[in-house]
Each structure stands twice: as structure tokens, then as C-alpha cells.
Amino acid sequence: MELREALRDYTRELMKEAHEKGAPVMRPLFYEFKNDDKVWDIKDEYLYGPDLLVAPNLYEGAVSREVYLPEGSKWTDARTGSVFEGGQTILVEAPLSSIPVFLRDGRQAYLIGKI
Fold it and tell me: What residue intervals traverse the membrane (predicted)?
């Protein structure tokens, strides 16, 4: 419930944009990062709107996973507050109880610790 409330205004903005402009709420990485050749082949990460990169664990028994952070932005791990330069692949903890989420360029910083 806390996460849903934290994302309420952001989700409302996304729904308005979807209604008025036809922009998808859940987006493949290439939707926002057309010039980053690496994102065109990534199938296990997505963006929730333009600012939240979601990288779920898709494999039973896995406790970590590699996450590619698109170039041209800095990315903040919503769980830890650690900041990473885009254009690199990092290894993150990814237990089934916690989905890795990254905030683009420090946007939505109020979500750190709530995701």
C-alpha cells in the first residue's frame, strides 16, 4: 500500500500522458533511449514511465541479476540510494522479495527506500 501511495502522482501523470499522447505506461528501454544500441536487445527490463527502470528476477533460485543501465543518464538504486553512471551493466541483489528499481537522473528521489 505504501508503494502505491508513493507512486500515485507519478502514475497519474503517466495515465494522463497515455490518454493525451498515446505513450505507453510500461515501456521497452528503447522507447526512451533510442540512441543506445544495447537497449534494443534487452527483454527482461522495462521502464515504468520515463523515470523508473524495473529489472525483475525472472529465474527460480536466483538471488542476484545483471542490470543494464542505459547511457545518457545517471541511475539511483531505489533500495540503497547508490548512484551509477549509465552505459554499464551492474550486478545487483535480486531476491524474490525485492524487485530492483532504478530512478533516472535522481528523479522521483522521494521514492528511495519505498520501493
Answer: none
